[in-house]
Amino acid sequence: QVQLVESGGGLVQAGGSLRLSCAASGRTFSRYAMGWFRQAPGKEREFVSSISWSGDITYYADSVKGRFTISRDNAKITVYLQMNSLKPEDTAVYYCAADLNPRLRTPDYWGQGTQVTVSS
User: Fold this and answer.
1) CA distances from 102 to 41, 58, 92, 112 (A)
2) CA distance 87 to 17
3) 10, 14, 11: which is closest to 87 by C-alpha?
4) Are strands 92-99 and 33-39 parallel, antiparallel or unpaired?
5) How many angstroms separate the most distant Cα atoms in the chain?
6) Is the CB of residue 38 less than 8 Å from the CB of residue 45?
7) What is the predicted pLDDT for the residue at 38?
């Protein structure tokens, strides 16, 4: 059974930082891109960032460019999202996802989500 398990969410003040992690288990994730979506209360889920299997291709939503950095460790089958200069509008549940498409068009796997709350 495939599992994506997120960690690292929490409460932080505006301007602060958090690092999210997502560990995959249960199957071989060779060639799978991984990344993050988020969903704020009353809003649709939106793409945040993704990284290709090799790590040489990354994508970011315009709203997080220059503040968030995605990376991965294939030995650990883990993807990270370093979030700096956080804003209250970054408050959301963050979901990890995996897809053969590096833009995560239609993810095959999802995590359960981790809450990120940024106070003003």
Assistant:
1) 27, 8, 23, 20
2) 10
3) 14
4) antiparallel
5) 41
6) yes
7) 98
Residue 108 is predicted with a pLDDT of: 94
From residue 93, give the alpha-carbon distance in Å to each of 27, 43, 73, 75.
25, 11, 23, 27
- Determine the straight-line distance between the first and last CA of the chain, rounded to whole angstroms: 40
CB burial class (10 A; 0-12, 13-18, 19+) of residue 82? middle
Residue 8 · residue 113 · CB < 8 Å: no
User: What's the 3-state SS for 56-93?
Assistant: CCEEECCCCCCCEEEEEECCCCEEEEEECCCCHHHCEE
| Separation in Å, CA 14 to CA 9, 34, 45, 86, 87 | 14, 27, 22, 5, 5
> Which tens digit of pLDDT belongs to each residue from 40-88?
999 999 999 999 999 999 999 999 999 999 999 999 999 999 999 999 9
**102 touches 52 (CB < 8 A):** yes
Per-residue tokens: 8: 């690292």
